[in-house]
Amino acid sequence: MDSHDEKSGVLKSSGEGVDVDTDVDNLKPDFVKKIESFDVHNLRPEDIEYMHQVIGEFFVNKYSVRPELAAEIPSHTRMLSNEEFRAKVLEKDSEAEDDLDELTGFYNEKDDCTYINMDYYDSPVELFSTMTHEGLHFVSLRNGAGFGGYFAAPESLQEKEEMAYYARKGLISVVEGTTQMLAWDALEEMGFTDNMASGYLPEVMVMRAVYGALPENMEKQLYFNTPMEDLRMAIEETFAPEHSKTIRAGGVSGVFCDCLANIGIVVENMEIALNDDDGDEAMALQDDIVSAIEFFKNERNKNGF
Description:
Shape: globular
Largest sheet: 3 strands, mixed
Number of helices: 12
Number of strands: 5
Strand order of the largest sheet: 3-5-4
Structural class: mainly alpha
Helix content: 55-70%
Strand content: 5-15%
Radius of gyration: 21 Å
């Protein structure tokens, strides 16, 4: 395709990772220029196939996604009209009426398919950004990770309405903030510079602060390879090492849900800071996150983990 060797696909892979041919005039890879040239209102099936190929090859080359899993993304993606998309959203959640105008795509674990509202997009890059985001959900959750799936929580959680609200908000923030962060990073590394999907900014800012205080590439290990229950146990045993065996056997201290609730509260405050254009408060919130992560790391070291 284009000037690339078909055997190595749209992206060329080398020992250093993804290597692409670039145009001398604007330094954009050929595949980026091709996608940017698409008429998003008149996309052909081969255009969608090309975008899926780029996404799949990048996931394999840079995120070590299994090739056979990446190859399944196209057959599990449905490009819908606005009417069809809204019907699918309400089929998944009958109480999502208020969110219809904000949703542009989603992955449904129940039927293992991604749904994208094609009528929403005016830019092929914004569409490609959403396809990348939803593709990340697909491959990570199918791999038993992606911050999805079962994790043990205290039975009393549902009795604490405010706590349950913020724990759920925190969980959604971890899932969507990490996914959007990885999607933006992927597009930037590919060579895209404009018109990326812009949702989840508060969540991304919070999760960047979290991962920035952790060892390099920890976000990829957690997102692509770590079941949620494993993460829950690792966090809870950090603060109760004497109960490690009990926690590993499914015992619950509630600390993990506390952590999620705290993330939910920070994201809510970040939303307020961004709406108020309060950069100082946004930076202070990120600093607080870094301090909390450093405390967690110290506790793990102190307790021999």
